Amino acid sequence: MTVPFHVQFDRHSAWRREHALRLKLIGEWLRQHELLDPAMEEKLSLLDAQLRSEKITIAFVAEFSRGKSELINAIFFAGYGRRILPASAGRTTMCPAELGYDAGVTNCLRLLPIETRLQAPSLAEWRARPEQWTRLDLDVDDGAQLAAALEKIAEVRRVTRDEARALGFWHDEAPEDNPAVDAQGMVEVPAWRHALINLPHPLLQQGLVVIDTPGLNAIGAEPELTINLIPQAHAVVFVLGADTAVSRNPIWRSGASTC
């Protein structure tokens, strides 16, 4: 019999809590018997912190318009009776969105401007610079406000081809993957490089982190997705369209090989 995911996750969380308690008891016993030297105490503290802060990351990956964001909406936001993450017909997620929960941060959406790709710091380094992110507070009791705020993830900008090339969205050697050029010679690129969504969903509170990636066709535009975020995920969920299955797009082979 297949055990539902939320049950498995609850069991994993219980396992972490149980082992954290055992570490505490071991530390107390060692201290009582005067066997706990500073090096051992530091090691126990590190293990305890690791158990309590451990995150499980799942990346959702698909080609454009295959229902990936809709699936995440169904898992995390069904109770609102409406779409919360942008997922309307014809819309695709161009900005990677990361759902998680940090008790030390208020419920909010943080957005990193796309222009940061032109600078040297990595995405991990930008995380340590909160002043560089655009922040919007989220009201988890108001589905309309929550959906309106998260719509910003799908915002786009129109730039020249040279700007798109510098940002990683225009490739002369692969013209079939380039965005369409409008009558003014401009192309559409995402306004944001990365989105962090901090919400007190029960699964997120237990340490689950979900990454809603852009379509497989656009993943290569953000190197850190292929180099760090997706390969370091504990699991990758590939979403297929029921009417299309796996296309001939070679990104399936290259995408799977990075995981």
Features:
single chain, 259 residues, alpha/beta, two-stranded antiparallel ribbon, 10 helices, 9 strands, 37% helix, globular
Largest sheet: 7 strands, mixed
Question: Strands across the major sheet, in which order?
Answer: 4-3-7-2-8-1-9
Q: Could you say which overall geometry the principal axes of the C-alpha atoms support?
A: globular
Mean pLDDT across every amino acid position: 82
Helix count, per DSSP? Answer: 10
Strand content: 15-25%
Share in helix: 25-40%
Estimate nothing, just give the exact number of structural domains.
3
Order of helices and strands: HHEHEEHEHEHEEHEHHEH
- Kindly report how far apart the N and C termini lie: 28 Å
List the quaternary state of the chains: single chain
Structural class, from secondary structure content?
alpha/beta
| Low-pLDDT segments, ≥5 res | 254-259
Rg, nearest Å = 21 Å
Number of strands: 9
TL;DR?
The chain has helices at residues 5-32, 38-53, 68-76, 123-127, 143-150, 161-167, 202-205, 216-219, 223-229, 251-257; strands spanning 56-62, 97-100, 108-113, 134-137, 156-159, 187-190, 192-198, 208-212, 235-239. With 259 residues, the chain is α/β, with parallel strands linked by helices. The chain has three domains: 5-51, no CATH class; 55-151 and 191-257, no CATH class; 156-189, no CATH class.
Please describe what this structure looks like.
24% of the residues are buried. With 259 residues, the chain is of the alpha/beta class. Helix content is 37%, strand content 18%. It is globular, with a radius of gyration of 21 Å. It has three domains: 47 residues, no CATH class; 164 residues, no CATH class; 34 residues, no CATH class.
